[in-house]
Each structure stands twice: as structure tokens, then as C-alpha cells.
Amino acid sequence: MKISSLGEIKLIDKIRSQVKLFSNDIIKGIGDDAAVLEYNSKYYMLLTTDTLVEDDHFSVRWFKPEQIGSKAIESNISDIAAMGGIPKYALVSITLTKNLEVDFFDKLYKGIAKKCEKYRISIIGGNLSSGKKISIIISLIGVVEKKNLCLRSDAKVNDLILVTGTLGNSRSGLELLKHNKCGKSIDYYLNPTSKLKESRLLVKNKINAMEDVSDGLASEVLNICNASKKGAVIYKDLIPLEKNTIIDAKKVKKDPYNYALYGGEDYELVFTINKKELDSLNKLKNKLKFSVVGKILPKNKGVYLLDKDKKIKLNYGYEHFRRS
Amino acid sequence: MKISSLGEIKLIDKIRSQVKLFSNDIIKGIGDDAAVLEYNSKYYMLLTTDTLVEDDHFSVRWFKPEQIGSKAIESNISDIAAMGGIPKYALVSITLTKNLEVDFFDKLYKGIAKKCEKYRISIIGGNLSSGKKISIIISLIGVVEKKNLCLRSDAKVNDLILVTGTLGNSRSGLELLKHNKCGKSIDYYLNPTSKLKESRLLVKNKINAMEDVSDGLASEVLNICNASKKGAVIYKDLIPLEKNTIIDAKKVKKDPYNYALYGGEDYELVFTINKKELDSLNKLKNKLKFSVVGKILPKNKGVYLLDKDKKIKLNYGYEHFRRS
Prior knowledge:
2 copies of one chain form a homodimer. By secondary structure, chain A is of the alpha+beta class. The first copy, chain A, has helices spanning 3-6, 8-18, 65-82, 102-119, 169-178, 186-190, 196-203, 217-228, 243-251, 256-262, 278-282; strands spanning 26-28, 35-38, 43-53, 86-96, 122-130, 135-145, 160-164, 210-212, 231-235, 269-273, 290-297, 303-307, 310-313. Chain A is built from 11 helices and 13 strands.
């Protein structure tokens, strides 16, 4: 059987079945946005890694080299933000093609270094190798106060499900580029920003589960529900969409709600709270934008979208390896 | 200018010039086998990352999938061993081709998992992506007792330079494969093993600088000398060669000393000690094999090989990106 027939989810299941843990200081291994290790009396350490591969995650036809470097860092920071933490150190590995212009490399690395400076992340190591395509692999190490750690597995029945910002913008931008069209959502795709500041504001309130929206809202809610052994309902008409995303989706005759649910790379946060906490959270309204989109249910209710009166089962969104 | 004209060393210099550190708990950033962070009262944390790219670091014509996985882990452990430390946690990222057989992936991951079990390394995270070639990127996190940390920069004038085991075997194996010939050194190339146990024995003695031999003895001695601001002499006739390596090098009409100096991937250790410590070190002779190969000199003497009476300046060995 080929990798393309099996798909990413089943491959990850295969990996999980083989992995063994040998230290009792591992709070969370595979299965969340970042691994969590015991660190000191106040903090846990967070470790995550993310890869951008040319022509899978980015195309040099659309991205400036500096944007590729920036995106590589932002996508990793998003995983640290999803745990409620602060990024601190990075290992930066880059595979380059022999024919690449040094100027391109300089700009790509500048994109990485500028973002690291912005977030005060120290690049402490990495490596260079040569290949047929460019790829950037970043391992990011952060910390989180023990009381602020947010896991996928902490959602409770009747929790409200909320998201920061708006969804579907990034995929909308990608579709415009693919169809040679223009529109404001292209900027979201090319210049994504993680929601680190927002995450740090949220964890100072009482939130339960959290995750970043890297693979679309449907996948992320499924991850939270699987890890928390819960079900969920998402109310379609509550999903926050940017006006420009609706306009841009029309240009390519696509449904912007589909982008929000299955598009990915928005790097917003999805989180759950006890509804008693909503008043306290609302006090942050002047500092960050968020919307209630659904509710956590008992596991036997399943995970579904409510579109008016119609229940639609939610599935995993983007998977690597699958032929599209 | 193209990457291939500039070469790896100058690219790394470019990176170093851009990197800023924002934490005062970074003992060593870029510029050694692993980064060193303050951890707790007894230990430093070590972090390293290494990439294996198909057709650059391995070919599926020669390597079984399990051997690729094993080599990926061993090359990273070698960097932790070079610092005197113990590996503990791994982040494993793999880029796969869509057409790859699932069975190949299973065996590759088994190679990684089996080695992790052997060394009691916990796989705590990673990711999968899709690309035109297979690559395996491992970030390995370890610890080292503060008193046992070995840096490249700790070599002293008149220190003896020693290496564990024998050198040049791996390159000898690679050359046999390239020339469709057989010989015992092929096994060294396909199944490299890091010298973790040896490193842990060594650091319990008083050693100064240490590094693993991943790019050939010449490069490693140059790294130690550059970091320590010293010169060095290597005595050609003291370089330890395996009998089979000499036999196999003859088959392809190559000089086995060249393999030792410029071949790479031997994953032996090169280290320096005060000559007063040699007696104490010799007590380990029944547990590990090592040989004196040279001496640290003042910086103004340069770094050279002494071949009988002839002084030959040492240069960096294998560089990625250079056309060979």
C-alpha cells in the first residue's frame, strides 16, 4: 500500500503505537501542539517542531523568500501559543538546492531572524543540508507557567467553544493565487501571524482546552474532542468570517465556510471555557477579538456542524499525502 | 552568486552574523556539536538537530529503510556524546514521498524506534510532511552533568589529541558501494554507531576539548583549533586505520589516510587531554580503544599534518552544496 492511500492520520497512529517513553518527567508526549516536560518549580518546558517543504507548504512563485522564513517561525510559535506558553529558543534546519541564489538564502534567513528578534527567540543551533527542494524545519522550545498550561484534553461537557479572530482567510488567499486572481485575503496566506499575545491574555483567564487552527476548525475541534473524550456541536452561522474572505471566495465560486472548517493555516486559537467565565472573558473584548462558535457535548453525541436544523458530521480537513 | 559557489562554511558564517541571543541562560549557542542551556543545579541541557536527506546523505539503493532510521538517530546521538552528555528526548520529523510504500515507512520508523529503545530516548513529538525526496530531521535533547561538559573551545597548548577507534571506515564503505565493489568497510557506512558509552567513560577522566568525527579528522581538529584559538599538528603515521579499510581503499585505488582526514561519518570521538592525564586514561584501555594522533600548538603554528618530515596544511573536508 502507498503512503497516499493510507493518509497522515493513520500514519501518526502507526507512530504512536511504536513510541515508548523512558522518563517520568514527560507531562505530555506526542498528541498535542507541543510536548510538555517538567522543567522547574514554576515552569514546564514546551517543545515543538514544524516543517515547511517547497511546493507542499509554499511555492516560490507566490512567496518572497523573507515571507517563507517568517511563516516558518510563525507556524511554530502558533504551537507554543496553543499551549499557553512563551517561545524562547529555536533550532533552525534548512535544506537548500545547490542552484539557489545566495541572495535568496540571505532573505529567507532574514525573515527567520527578524521574527526571532520580534519575539525575542534565541536561535541556538540548526544545520544546513542540500536537497532537490527547499525546506525549513524549525524546532521551537518554550516555557509555560504550570498553572497556565492548556492541553487539548481539558475540555469539559457544556464548555463553550470559542475562536479568536476570523477563519478561512488563509485558504481563501491560496485559492485566489491558484486561480490567478487578486484579493485582500492573499495577504493572510502569505503573511500569517501566530496569536501569541492573544494566547497569553487568554491563559490569564480560566480557559480549559486550547489549540491553534492550523488544519481548519473541523480538525481542531475533532482533536480537542478526541483528546478530551467528548463530543461537540459547531453552529455554522456563528463561525466568524472576514467580509473580504466572503468576497474572495465568491471570485472562485467556493464556500467560505468550507475554508473556515477545512482550510487551515489561519493560526487563530480555538479554546473552550466554562460558560460562567464568559463575563470575565468579555472584559478582554477591547484587547482581543473572539467569538463563541459551539459547545462541548458528551462523547456519544458525536462531533457535528449544525447548519440551521441540519446536523453534518465533521471530518478531518487537510491531510498530507492524500492526492487532491 | 549560487549556493554551490559559496559553500557551507561561509553560509554558516552568514547565519552567525545574524543570530542574536535574548536569554542569559544560554551557555553555548551556535558553534559546537550541541547547544548548551542552563537546566538545574546539577545539569545543563543539550540540544542538537541533524538532517538526513535522500541522495545527499543516503541512497535507497544501498540503505535498507531500517538502516536509514538507525543512522538518523545515531548521527544525532553522536553530537550529544561529543558534549559528554546523555540523550533523553527526540523530536522526529519525516518528509515522505506520496508514492512511498507504507512498508518502507514502517521499517524506517522501526529503525528509529529500536535505537531509541536501546538508548532509552523518549520520542516526544515530531511531524510528517510530503515532498519529492525522503528526509529525516531529528532534534535530540539531552543532559550533561555541569562538571562533565566538553566544549570544542577547551583545548590547551601542549594537550595531546586523541581519537577513539579507527578512522576512514565509513568513507571507504561508501566508495566501495559507488564502485560496485564488496568489502567489510561497507558495514561501517551503512550501520554507523555513535560512541556514547565511550564518551561517558572519557568525561569521567579529565579531558579538555571534545568533538565527534562526522566530517573527517581534519575538519574536526580545525573546529577545535578555531574555537580554542590554537594550532595543532597531526602525525599521519599515528592515525589509526582498520586493516580492512586499507584493503578496501586499495580496491578503488584511493589513499585510506585521505578517508580518515576528509571522509567523515565515522562518528568516533576526537578529544584533547593534558599529557599528565594519559596514565589515568590508559587504565581504560580494556574498555575503550583510543590512540594519540597529535598535539595542540600555539595558534601561530597553524593546523597541519606531519607526513614524515613534510608539513601539509589541513583544510575542511566534506562541505554540503559544493559540487564534487
